[in-house]
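Q: Got a minute? One more chain.
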Amino acid sequence: MSTAPDRLEAVRIEKLQKIEALGHDPWGQRFDDHLPIREVRAKAPAENGIDGETVRVAGRILRRNDRGKLKFFHILDMSGQIQLMVSKADIDENAWALIEELDLGDIIGVDGPVKRTRTGEITIGIKALQILCKSLAQPPEKFHGVEDIEILLRHRHLDLIYTEGVVERMQLRTKILQSVRNTLNERRFLEVETPVLHAVAGGAAARPFITHHNTLDIPLYLRIALELHLKRLMVGGIERVYEMSRVFRNEGIDATHNPEFTMIEIYQAYGNYESMMDLTEAIITNAARVVVTERAKLAGTEAPERLVMPWGDKEVDFTPPWQRRTYGDLFREHVGVDMADSAAVTEVAKKRGIETQGVHPDVIISELFEAYVEDSLVGPVFVTDYPSSLCPLTKRKRGNPDIAERFELFVHGMELANAYTELNDPLLQEELFRTQLAGMSEEDSMAKMDTEFVTALKTGMPPAGGLGIGIDRLIMLLLNCRSIRDVIFFPLLKPEAPRGISGGTPEVPSPS
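A: Always. Here it is, folded:
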């Protein structure tokens, strides 16, 4: 519930009233033709002390320094920062009075020549100024950052303003998404939108969020995957199709999981899982090239030929071609037994403390693979040819029905992509939907009966490859972020206890 303004907010409201008395609108008006600060910085003359061209910029005040009749500001927009300088002799009395009422956090627009000071700092000499928004919230005590991660995540606007590099990171996120779309659009894929509310929570092994439609009086599920609707579009003749959207899984939160996340699913008629490997490599290497190129531009250097990128204290070399290894070979190499030797597999599982009684052998194999193999996969490496019982939506390998034509892409133990040669046999698909995998609960199994999907398959779906990529994890990797929360604008958090404030900035400790 709102309360009376605190002392600091009351001071700002008083300044707002003075601004109104001066005849200015404290909430601003349209401000056309201003340039990004980064472009203005590039226009600065090479010599110190010489006025360059007159420019127009807008941004938020981060710092101010009053020196009597000379004042300095630093303002920030989404492209960067720049210093402003104003002399009382250069503007009229009303504008000077307005400047006296400005606070840190206010948004202003200015016109004036861009130049370099005697010390070489790029600066705009203010000749005209407009208030574009009066900030009533007190910013953090030190403009250069907030150290309380919880505050930054709950109040992402503070993170974007006061933490260096966050805006750049989020801009790169958007450029990565654009790159993914460009790669697919150039290959004649059609982007579509499919329903978020599903009658059947199918297409993945995950626990759904459940809701209720009042008019129809039926339960509905927030989608856990995009697959089944996209395949129905392929049945309808859309041969190359993709969707990049939010999906929802009612599960835990950790460094690589958020209940609401972005993924892309892609389907290509007349392809297979090998087609999807080629496509995955192209999508990710193109995105990595965008990141490397953008960062080289910021640094004023040439982009390197090889796509070697940092990952913590390690590196990832995305330069193609990438390694391809079979599931069985990796299992034998790291677990020490052949996955076809059920007795040996059971013995290793018991030593590891993995439950084996009444559990399907392939579930045991999967748990051993996760325990012994995944963390050792530096990559990028495509792991191919999984046990078929783990993949109920996947076509079996010709001549070996125990193996599914599936791959997963791993980098430093993290799964980034999952792809299949899609199962298009409606009779086998229906059988698999009816036979839940032994050892898996309903919520953990992908084999959810979807009669509408089976009916569509009976019309005839062309042989196809299908691919899913976790977009947030990909962005984490390309931007060297160790938590998924760093690359999602608003990650899910437990609700904050009411503070009884009137909507201003929360109590923000000064970094020490």
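A: The chain has two domains: 7-133, 166-322+379-486.
Q: Perfect, thanks.
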